[in-house]
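F.,

This is the one I mentioned.
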């Protein structure tokens, strides 16, 4: 749903940015004062993740970062992320929630999930950012976002590696 933005302030526009139909620029800056009302109906998006989707060899002490296209409501953004193990080191499909803490940086427009403990080696993790994440106006995230990654292999043990389509299995 669209939300109104009301600004009661003075806006100064650099005259070099203003052009008429023939391309002539204004000489002076233009000052507009009063109340400006606009509609923000643009849904925020996830623009990047760390680690990237389908990354292999992620260090077990890594944090997870999700960057948004615009400023987010801190509480909703922090509540929107969940992390779970979806494939264990033996190649078995599982669903094990990962606990951790979440912080939000307004400067970076980014949430950071820090697992409570190091992640397990040779496991596939899935991160979900739900549409419950909203921008500061109240617009929900455009789509639920899911991405996966695999942690580093434990070279001191036998490992089972299963690809996404479950056709290749190495032990």
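My design for it:
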């Amino acid at each position: 749903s669209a939300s109104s933005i009301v600004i009661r302030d003075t806006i100064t526009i650099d005259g070099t940015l203003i052009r008429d139909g023939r391309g002539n620029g204004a000489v002076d800056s233009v000052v507009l004062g009063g109340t400006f009302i606009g509609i923000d109906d643009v849904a925020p998006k996830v623009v990047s993740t760390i680690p990237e989707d389908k990354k292999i060899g992620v260090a077990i002490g890594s944090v997870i970062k999700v960057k948004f296209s615009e400023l987010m409501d801190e509480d909703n953004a922090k509540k929107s992320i969940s992390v779970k193990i979806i494939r264990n080191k033996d190649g078995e499909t599982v669903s094990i929630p990962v606990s951790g803490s979440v912080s939000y940086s307004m400067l970076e427009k980014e949430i950071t999930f820090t697992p409570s403990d190091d992640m397990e080696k040779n496991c596939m993790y899935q991160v979900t950012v739900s549409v419950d994440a909203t921008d500061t106006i109240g617009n929900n995230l455009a789509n639920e976002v899911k991405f996966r990654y695999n942690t580093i292999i434990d070279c001191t043990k036998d490992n089972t590696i299963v690809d996404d389509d479950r056709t290749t299995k190495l032990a």
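The first helix runs from residue 74 to 79.

Talk soon.
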